[in-house]
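To: structure desk
From: M.T.
Subject: fold request, one chain
Message: Could you run this one when you get a chance? Sequence is below, nothing fancy, just the single chain.
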Amino acid sequence: MPPNLQPAFRALADPTRRSILTMLAENDMTVKEVADQFDMTRAAVKKHLTVLSDGGLITTKVRGRERINSHNPAGLAPVMDWLSFFDQFWDDRLSDLKSAIEKDIQ
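Reply: Done. Structure tokens follow.
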């Protein structure tokens, strides 16, 4: 059975979360460091980070009093697997269309 993709798609649905994910792909960051990049409260940023974590797209490690957030590349694998089905679907359809057009031309 495929994994539940709903949490990952929910996380990716928001442009702020996509921005945060891009930033975390470049550097691990604390909540404060992420919040400094946006015009919103730390609490709002923490909610976004929680949704990203629930989607499996980031991990959080506690270091002393800080929570270090990191991009989790493996979290995108199920999403990419799901999307690859449609990539193959359209490749097949376009190939069929090309064959049909070439057949009609001859």
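Reply (cont.): The longest strand covers residues 58-63. Let me know if you need anything else for the meeting.
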